[in-house]
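Page 47, continued from p. 46.
Same chain as before, 353 aa.
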Amino acid sequence: MHEYVVNLHMHTPYSDGTRSHTEIAQTAIRAGVDVVIITDHNVWVNGPENYYHEDGKGVLLLVGEEIHNQARDPQKSHLLVFGARCELAHLGHNPQLLLDGVREAGGLAFIAHPVDPPSETFGETDLSWDDWDVHGFTGLELWNAMSEFKSLLTSKLAAVYYAFNPTAIAHAPFAAALQKWDELLNQGRRVVAIGGSDAHALRGSLGPFKRTLFPYEFHFKAINTHIQTSEPLSGDLETDRRLVLEAFKKGRVFIGYDLPAPTRGFNFRAQGLNSKVTMGEEISSKNGVTLQIRLPQRAEFRLLKNGEVIKSWNDRDGAAHITTETGVYRVEAYIEFRGKRRGWIFSNPIFVK
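Result:
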């Protein structure tokens, strides 16, 4: 498998962002990101999807869309669409109709910020997903950077503090989002978890204080989704788009908070009698399975089965666990940063059958 760093859920001036596709691509190249996925609100921008290069380095920029019902108040239930390559915002009034349309277009659908609490201080409403009776979505955005920022805006003083100290914001996905993900997995549904920036780089002011909130440069160093492709990216747009979307569809991805320490190199695999699988894949429990965890550096991590912690390790960079029990197994890793324990890595599951 070949690992690449993807930063997704970004906005441009086509909706409510502040930088162009080209500017975002150039910033991503300087940050060392491999793939960027732009998802403007209710508009699919045809044209900018391509490889961009600067000083001998490159980034693959893909264009999706974030769709919701614009007539609804509040405007809940946003959906991230990747790979459809056509405009689908006209289906936004009906989440199930929209999901059906994404499938027919050959795209992938991820529930955006499934938990998105309000900020009463600034009149920001709750934009959580609440249409859970739908079916056909690929996964959900387990960790959304902007939703977490929004949840901390409990006062104007807090807003000023976090605007000037963005490295203090990220702690982990919301507990309610993790709980919902585990609930869906325990129902036997294959739901892929991703992490998103929800980047706008909005310019904020409060009295004499002026600041760009969460600049794109910062996002690229923070919450990323790392993918594992079956082949190395070649530089060909069509081929590499297919490889990236295939990794997302199959769940060969993990969420990495790369600011405290790089998460590149993490691996979660399972070895059976006659097979070896990675995240998003299924393996038989017959004759036992060895679950193998490898971290880029020593940290605290734990193995969960069906949403419950079954084993924990501290100050280790790897471990193995043998099981004969069926279940949904996933890994969480935590790291100390700025004096607090923070989420570092969240894997997608391996399904032991």
